[in-house]
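Components:
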Amino acid sequence: MSKQYETVIGLEVHVELATRTKIFCGCSTAFGAAPNTQTCPVCTGMPGSLPVLNKQVLEYAIAVGLATGCDITRYAKFDRKNYFYPDNPQNYQISQLYLPICRNGGVEIETEAGGKKTVGIHEIHMEEDAGKLIHDEWEDCSLVDYNRSGVPLIEIVSEPDMRSAEEVIAYLEKLRQVIQYLGASDCKLQEGSMRADVNLSVREAGTEAFGTRTEMKNLNSFRAITRAIEGERERQIDLLEAGESVVQETRRWDDAKAESYAMRSKEDAQDYRYFPDPDLVPITVSDQMLAKIREKQPEFRTEKMARYKAEFDIPDYDIEIITGEKPLADLFEAAVACGASPKKVSNWLMGETLRLMKEQELDAGDLRFSPQNLAKLIALTEKKVINSSVAKEVFEVMFAENVDPEQYVEEKGLKTENDEGALKKVLEEVIAANPQSVEDYRNGKEKAIGFLVGQTMKAMKGKADPGTVNQMLRELL
Amino acid sequence: MDILDMTALQLAAAIKQGDTTAVEAAQQMLARIEAQDKTYNCYVTVDAEGALAQAKAVQKRIEAGELTGPLAGVPVALKDNLCTEGLRTTCSSRILHNFVPTYTAEAVKNLQKAGAVILGKTNMDEFAMGSTTETSAYGVTRNPHNTEHVPGGSSGGSAAAVAAKECFYAIGSDTGGSIRQPASYCGVVGMKPTYGTVSRYGLIAYGSSLDQIGPLTKDVADCAAVLEVLTSHDEKDSTSIARKDTNFTEALTDDIKGLRIGIPNDYLGEGLDGEVREAILCAADVLREKGAVVERFDLSLVEYAIPAYYTIAAAEASSNLERFDGVKYGYRTKDYAGLHNMYKKSRSEGFGEEVKRRIMLGSFVLSSGYYDAYYLKALKVKALIKKAFDDAFSKYDVILGPAAPTTAPKLGESLADPIQMYLGDIYTIAVNLAGLPGICLPCGKDSRGLPIGLQLIGDCFQEKKLIRAAYSYQQGRKAEEMTCVSNVENGQGGEPA
Amino acid sequence: MANIISDETIEYVGILAKLELSDAEKEQAKADMGRMLDYIDKLGELDTDGVEPMSHVFSAENVFREDVVTNGDDRERLLSNAPQEKDGMFVVPPTF
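Structure:
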């Protein structure tokens, strides 16, 4: 490659809002129900049915707009976006084009170089989600489930302000954090409650004019986003280097094959014939409504970090990690409120919790154990009812099934053996069975004691306090 | 008095007094439909079994004193674009030939609560697109006054059913005159209320910003009573309005002293049939004699209403009718290759010509590059038209004019030239664009014996003024001219002797 | 006729509207649409500069519902009109 290229990226991020009901009808939005059991005439496009806006959707959209520095549109409308597809029961999607609810915002991200930059938000609009298509290759047909049809979305459209995959990820993490803090969505990429479409173009370094962009869809993880950006950047540069031009089109990313392909077909005119939806009335946002939503805004991360620093004696690094994910911060605060020491709670979150999350590829929002149970587990170790290795074992079970650690320890008989007589008996057996190690110890080999402690713990099935065992061994020898 | 000659209110009173029963009324109606609807084809679907079951249940509740309303026990016919749970609803289209709704339209629920007995579903222009009921996929409906002529449309089946005494009253919908114009052609009373008065939930949409449901009745008193029942504030319809002043029957008073009535010169000009013109001016004289102040004035912009209307209605219709795609309900083509071919074939085979014409036009005016020039321009003209009416209503309580330029045309004369047909809507269409209430009532007949309709238009929410004016006019006319089927004897249509 | 509708336009609108017209229907549609547009062009005679487009007749605003679940499982009835169903879902030609 002879020339230097710059990548220009803008994102369209769809976020499913955490409302109980759909955007235009009283159907539940609960995840995982049997197909088409959460539907009604409105969200299945039955003739004669009409939409009515869920107030909570508007409030969440405005809250996200305020938190990302947007201007709130005081007179907003819904428009119809017309296109035929089976997951879209009316064959038009109710969305906002002409008067979206929020405009002209931005969020600050940290760049690779350690500096800060603002990614502009062009607009945020409200719209309805589509249903799901399930492919039946055996019968060569597709099956339509409308449970997701009408689930409320906001689409956050950024300016083309990002220049690398790292910036894109930083932007997404920032958005996720803000939205999670608001409680407006759980923002899970894997489950599709947060979805990002990447608009990307390249241009010669130093030039002003944008190149032709493509839109990349079907990006279900940060990893896929990173790979797709790199792949598309290379594809476009290769085209330009070969003297060809980039075609403005929508492409679908296949993460398994690590390549993308154009989605366009002859039947797909991409002319959505937007017009104001006559079935919905305009929205006017009053000062009063805005003030109410502002009042309800939660403590955001920066404020939370400052408070943790003042209130809790835990390392700055821990604070950064814990406040980085709202569910983690909530868990932390709730466990501390149950009486557990902040330091200990932080240790459990930073250590075992993050380790298991990474191992099982889970988000903080997926954590199932309760803060009460974490506090109980910490109390059990502090009172030396169980030792630390047993505690880790119990934690793993708690992590998976949210068991009550007190009950679990009781049922499984995991309490540390505090009966010195019984322990002494076992110690004597271990000494008798390992004359060589005893000999080594007596000859000054400190390491040998470790082996004997291990043998004792094994014989006690782990239910002894290793400190006590060590001390008693030394006394006996 | 023969039951069949009674108005809806008279029948309900007779049932209440025990002179007859809801079951007897339903049976007589069903027998009459059975005997003569082959000739008129007012109905797409007759629900004889259901009607009798409803009549029995309603009769019991009347006798138990649970149903005391002024329409309890009276059989009604519903336009076939109103969803009725368990009863086929076709919009007179092949694409919904087998569609059985899973819920009932809010307006119909209101009727049921008032003790209505649903006889069946009436014929209409396909998806309410037409002015003659000839675009129906289920055959034309004939005008009971003369079976060589159309009943008007799109609520032609409903108007004809009232005129032919195949129901005591009927429900229609009006997007550009679809209640008032067939009422005019069939010599019955028809009213389109202010936009937002009757819930549209369950009305299969044509032009959502224009559609309103309303009554077709034998006289003005019935019209007021039915409208009162239909009206409600429905939380399922965002455009439904919470109105206070909805006891419309209170306006049934013969008193219009000082009422200011304006006749637009634009409504009496070129294209208006001479006999219709004469009848309208005679009607104005009747009102003047009763104490109204009648004046002529220039409404302006009248000729722009039709192009604005057809742009807006076609655009909305093209979107509203996208849901008919062969996936969830209705007609799906037999053989197809892939998704888009299935869509195209199902829709092309399922929709009739006029519907396709409007869908094509509507898709075009919304398409990229044309939206501003056509659709947005039409919305701006709509604003100007609304303003013209606002100015008029600052001077007048009621605007008076014809409902249609002619009496009912002959079958087969209208469809050949769509624009000529659209021009026939000139007096009714602006009312929908501006969301106003309008009523049409009989005011005479032409030399061929075909009814002429008088249209009265009110300002938004001024239904009571319209009802008062219409009722006063009706009282001022000779009784025999008001009976809507004076030339129809024993179900035999044809030229009067 | 001022508005001449090309074959391409009719083809394009057919894709948008998902309608497949026969050759005769296409010719008819071209003529009809051209005439209708000529007629609609009459609106151009009016000066609408500065006029706010009126999408809604009344000033009704802010109609909302509360975020409360009101609907239950209605699948059986939903599918009662389906041209084709399988496993509680609507069957359509393959989209993959």
